[in-house]
Amino acid sequence: MEATLVIFSGGQDSTTCLLQAIAERGAENIHTVTFAYGQRHKLEVELAEGLAKELGVASHKTIAVDWYKDITHNALMDTVTPIGRTAGATCPNTFVDGRNALFLLTAAIYAKGLGIHDLTIGVSEADYSGYPDCREAFVKSMEQTLRLAMDWPFRVLAPLQHLTKAQEWALADRLGRLDFVRTRTLTCYEGIPGDGCGTCPACKLRAAGLAEYLGSRGRA
Amino acid sequence: MEATLVIFSGGQDSTTCLLQAIAERGAENIHTVTFAYGQRHKLEVELAEGLAKELGVASHKTIAVDWYKDITHNALMDTVTPIGRTAGATCPNTFVDGRNALFLLTAAIYAKGLGIHDLTIGVSEADYSGYPDCREAFVKSMEQTLRLAMDWPFRVLAPLQHLTKAQEWALADRLGRLDFVRTRTLTCYEGIPGDGCGTCPACKLRAAGLAEYLGSRGRA
What we know:
The structure is a homodimer of 220-residue chains. Chain A has 220 residues and is an alpha/beta fold. Chain A is 44% helix and 10% strand. The termini of chain A are far apart.
């Protein structure tokens, strides 16, 4: 079984990806990498490391990209900027310029050193809030660029690419891990794990998807 | 005149690019960025900063990507590995996996914050020693990926793409800066500016190109 390196933040999306990868390939073939890039909540990095270890992955690595907050500005990294959508902007001010590209490139460099070809990332364009680097066109272009940059047959796997949040909850449930994802992951912009603050955009999206999935399950 | 951000190491290639950009757009429209990524010689970073200031660019920034040496290994960053070509390898062991991709991506994130679309990089595939990320196919793919990642009309300019070292010296001469490039830049793997140690692969390539150009000029 081929190994994969999962880009893992400890949020709903990447945890679901990680659980699926473990189910498909076995934990011994799964490596995880978490990026510390000046998040509002350092807890996210510690939580990710704890979950990865608990799930028994072959290796976990945290990479600090400290310079990131020094060259770009957004509400997710600047603690003084209120989270929201600026009038006329195409996406919320929580968009971190180049984030998924940076994660994939850095993960790719690290993966090649480990002899790994597959990279797994939990992006989704279904509920993507207008973030350009969640679109499939970006993911495909990035895969090609990585191959050309390093002469290495990378595959970028984005298993949630076309799933809504409700479908993502359904996937977690099929994996028998709905409660794990619900109670142990951190998606909330305020840094509260599980159901979170309930009022930030990330919590609302997550809760709406869960309600939709649980409603559909109730009717089934 | 549109501004450009020049990826600038203080070596022959990027200095020639910088001088050309200044000649075309005026120094007030030129910004430079230098990466400190665990080079064998920190002198390179200081030399680049000094040259950029002397040439009067609008801004200069050094970005430290310290984690780089922690996730990949090569002779350029590991001071214990002798520089050379491993038997059967497609390129020398000075190849730093993903380096030009990382430089371009980071420069792009920074450029977008400055409102800049153009990125200038001194890669050349004519004398590229087999480095995959010096090929035009990589540069074009990277440009497309950057546009998609950040929804911003980046242009990646690689004016040396098809120039040999001899043609590069000819360009510096046309700009009236042959002596500046020859005496003030640092290309040598041993960290010696100007004509360098004369024996490492970078010095040999540089010297051969210069001899070829000076020979052709003598004949003209």
